[in-house]
């Protein structure tokens, strides 16, 4: 199954200029693993050294923040989306 991934343009240098693309995976966890295998530079922007999602990053599976999910071994369905939001601050 394919999942559509969208990410902010601030991270496009980590994905060869792509801000929307598809990954092939059977589960959400597999899609996240595939994301890091395909685009290893994303790791430092999205996850801490201990493997936690960074505080300023939100990862949404369809309309649900993955932080609210008990298990990421969710079988993917046609039309599923993974959306990455990265908060930017400054003054």
Q: Tell me how many strands there are.
A: 5
Spatial separation of the terminal alpha carbons: 42 Å
Count of individual helical segments:
2
Structural class: alpha+beta
Q: In the CATH hierarchy, what is the architecture at level 2?
A: Roll
Superfamily at the CATH H level? Beta-grasp domain
What number of domains? 1
Topology of helices and strands:
Layout: E1 2-6, E2 20-24, H1 28-38, H2 42-46, E3 57-61, E4 64-65, E5 81-86
Parallel strand pairs: 1-5
Antiparallel strand pairs: 1-2, 3-4, 3-5
Features:
single chain, alpha+beta, 5-stranded mixed β-sheet, 2 helices
Descriptive report:
The chain contains two helices and five strands. With 91 residues, the chain is α+β, with helices and mostly antiparallel strands. The chain has a single domain (2-86), classed as Beta-grasp domain (Ubiquitin-like (UB roll), Roll). A five-stranded mixed β-sheet has the order 2-1-5-3-4, with helices on one face. Strand 3 (57-61) and strand 4 (64-65) form a beta hairpin. It is globular. The model has no long low-confidence stretch (mean pLDDT 94).
């Amino acid at each position: 199954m394919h999942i559509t991934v969208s990410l902010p343009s601030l991270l496009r240098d980590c994905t060869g200029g792509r801000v929307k693309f598809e990954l092939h995976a059977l589960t959400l966890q597999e899609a996240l693993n595939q994301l890091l295998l395909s685009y290893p530079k994303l790791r430092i922007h999205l996850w801490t050294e201990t493997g936690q999602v960074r505080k300023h990053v939100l990862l949404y599976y369809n309309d649900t923040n993955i932080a609210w999910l008990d298990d990421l071994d969710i079988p993917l369905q046609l039309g599923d989306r993974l959306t990455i939001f990265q908060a930017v601050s400054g003054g």
